[in-house]
Amino acid sequence: PSHSPHLSQKLARVLMMPPLTRHDNVADSVLSAHFTLRFGVEFLFQSKLIDAGAVPMGFSGLVSHCAEITPANFVLSHLLLTHSLQKICAPYFSTPESTTTVKREIMSVLAHFIHPKLKKTCNCKNLDPLPEFIKAELDNYNHLVEITVENTIEAFRKVGLNPNVELFRAPKI
To answer: How many other β-carbons are positioned within 10 Å of the β-carbon of residue 59?
Structure first.
């Protein structure tokens, strides 16, 4: 399909990243890589970022171009897909200074998801608390991650494989 070069490029980028888990045993490393890829495809599908034919859709470009800030990129797409960020902005659309206020409100929420390495270099102790509906969406997002991990484990067990998922880092917030 027309997305094949794009998908190949993105997969190559993922494969060049340091492994999520390191094993002395090559078979464990291969199993870990298979688990990570299987989880990734399932999670992308469940997150409505690819269709059943693995064709990118929706906010998949946003997620793939921001891979360095995983899991924040997935959380951002989830908040956009659930219209949660729009709910933050809605009360301010009728005011003359709405653009500045909307930017501040969105940035206040997004600041909670700054990459952990960046958090150490900025003053993130004074962040406003997240609105309750955003917290609820984060719970929904984390539940989706947990369900996808469980489904991936079950798929592996059905074919007689037992991946060591304790070393797998799921993209939870």
So the answer is: 20
